[in-house]
Amino acid sequence: MTKSILHKADSRGQANHGWLVSSHTFSFANYYDPSRIHFGALRVLNDDMVKGGMGFGQHPHDNMEIISIPLEGDLEHKDSMGNVAVIRQGDIQVMSAGTGIYHSEYNHHKNEAVKFLQIWVFPNKKNVTPRYDQITLQNKDSLNQLQQILSPNPEDEGVWIHQDAWFHLGHFEKGKTSHYQLKKPDNGVYAFVLEGDFQINGYDLNLRDGLGLWDLEGFDLKAQSENSKILLMEVPMHI
After folding, report:
1. What are phi and psi of 30, to 5 degrees?
2. Which of 105, 115, 160, 194 reaches 20 to 30 Å from 21, CA-CA?
3. Which family does the record assign (predicted)?
């Protein structure tokens, strides 16, 4: 029997540091809710806004797969592997922290905010060699359909991580539908609404609502308003 958990947007943990405004779907930093530690291998889903000229100074990570998805503006990245890059709306960035990495993330512009998702996924291999990658997505590939943007396979579409996880983005016109079939039977899917409104498995989802589904083979989704965008994150439920 299908299991589900609904996280409405206004139930998320909030942090306002002035230069950074962040909403935490799962426990993070000073926000702690024992019922919201993670969804399977999905550990962090932060919805961040960083003011112009500001950002996160150099800091360490290890043994975590870290994905950044800009929603508005440009994010400047530097790391201890020598990578210097700017990721923009339409890009997706991935880091395998592995044995350890230092990096910084700053708003690339002085006078406008950058908004992005910071996502952490538990890896299925520890102490791997740190790795960085980013790609630019083709918007046409997500129009009224689900576009794969992440998988476990370096030869597959999108970026890849050390985990049996698949991410998809979809940009739908009102009334359009799509079916998602899970890749692995023991996985679950966490759906996160980026814009507009959707209906999934009897749930009405609005802007920044999250819905976790597991113990199912697949599900249908329907856009309830124009210009509706959604991110689906399929991850193992047992870690």
Report:
1. -85, -5
2. 160
3. Belongs to the pirin family.
